[in-house]
Design goal:
alpha+beta; about 40% helix; 11 strands; seven-stranded antiparallel beta sheet
Length: about 280
Amino acid sequence: MMRKTIINHYPLFAPDHRGEFPFRIHAVGYYRNDVRQSRRSQYHIERYYCGVVLHGRSFISVNGESYCTFTPGDMYIMHRGKNYDMRFDREPRYTVLYFAADGPLLENLLGAYALRDAHHIGGLDCRNEIGAILKLAQEGDGELHQKAAVITHAILRTIAGALHKSTIKTYSPDVQKIKAYLDNHVESMIRIKTLGELVFKSPAHVNRMFRREVGASPYEYHLNRKIELARQLLSHPGMRVKEVAARLCFADQYYFSGLFKKKTGITPRSYRNKTPVIATTSLK
């Protein structure tokens, strides 16, 4: 089953997304802003959107931070749980080819390719790949979600290659050692004093050099890794919120729930309830 709607003369397909496959396409097609619309729109995103700009120009701010400019040929990823403020040039009218999706497989792919903070990908035009998903929807393919998952994996791999190729960072030996320690102790409670002892530096010095090179304090970096792992644990059946909080060494489930919602825009319980019950979806 599939619904087809017309937005400003452009078709948008909304496939049937029932079932337990861990990747779901909710909509795919073209969007063109109406000249009668306000030149500014605000959205709280409940799914993931990936698209390519075909015409026009937009300016997008994420969670109130500075605007990025999107022009034809640029790609974007809009992440679930984040707030977007969008401004458009009215002429030429802003047109994109996009798809909306969610599911634990997509969550894991974004984490595996380090794309949770990727929003603007300049000059990387994947319209052919998104067009292939649109064609599957138009044809009513019974394996739309499975085939779209493979295509989306290829898109994200291409995006990651383009972004990380230009943003690869070389850390100092001390920061590399601290970062590796944090990565290997995600489920543990870490003290800044312990990190200082690893590299024979004072806690204050560790904080300064890590923030300077990584862009976040050791505590912030470690907390983000915990939330990342929490997403995966909550995607598995049988893991209660209280158990996830205990496994990740949070003081209690209420403290954990507050931090999780602050980082993702949704409570752990709601996140788990929206995730299909499947045997395993994690990527190694």
